[in-house]
């Protein structure tokens, strides 16, 4: 039994096997209606709790669909409606849920909530996003890159904008999947030092370049995300827009990357803030493949968690 808490805390070889398994599962059901069951039903008789303390479209729908395709059942729970949001401890919630379900996915605020859930649950726990990380997203991103361009190892990935939760998991991904990483954004929004150190310790480049035009030179993949995340105060909006305006991913910036460089965004996007519609809808954008691959990648993650 394994919990999937972070890209950095999951074994490298296991991560690789999950990406390959996701690819195989996607291929195996090509052309099938979305609701059709997979030929294999590894989650038959399994119950999965999906807990959301923040909004979600992709994570919610892709986990729910993935469980159903693999023959399992889901309970989608909103944090606010649970006793968790009214004073019951995480530890007690984890112990109780472990008596009802076989697997827990949680999207929450503080990373410590996720870790406590995993510590006290006797079933595997999956990180569906915290303020600090978003590992499921990076599984889908690696899968998507490789689908279009082959192995990601040795490639150059550039993140332009806010050094947020998705960015931190991408940096962990650099270390685990062996790609070089460049962050470009304003200093107050730098990604956490620990993530950069983690990647460097795995022998890849993980650097900061303030000049976005320089940063994207030779990039194989350019990535951005919202300038204001769900955990950020709305009052920060105007300041962040001023800080980040120069890091918008637009045609000019993409022009500095390799001609076949891909563009990714975990979505939801704020069109014409962090990225122009021209880039989002342009020939190098793979944002909707990326969204679809959340489904396939997470199915592989769930199978790994349950060893089925
Ligand atoms: N990318 C992502 O996690 O999207 P949702 O917030 O819609 O789940
Ligand atoms: N950084 C964003 C990602 C949303 C999927 C947030 O945390 O709001």
Automatic annotation (TrEMBL):
Transferase listed as a keyword: yes
Subcellular location per the Swiss-Prot or TrEMBL entry: Cytoplasm
UniProt entry keywords in alphabetical sequence: Cytoplasm, Transferase
SUPFAM superfamilies: Aspartate/ornithine carbamoyltransferase
GO annotations of cellular component type: cytoplasm
UniProt domain Aspartate/ornithine carbamoyltransferase Asp/Orn-binding: residue ranges: 154-304
Keyword rRNA-binding: no
Binding site for L-ornithine: 165, 225, 229-230
GO biological process: citrulline biosynthetic process; L-arginine biosynthetic process via ornithine
Limits of the Aspartate/ornithine carbamoyltransferase carbamoyl-P binding domain: 3-147
Pathway: Amino-acid biosynthesis; L-arginine biosynthesis; L-arginine from L-ornithine and carbamoyl phosphate: step 1/3
Alphabetized Pfam families for the sequence: OTCace (PF00185), OTCace_N (PF02729)
HAMAP family reported for this sequence: OTCase
Protein name: Ornithine carbamoyltransferase
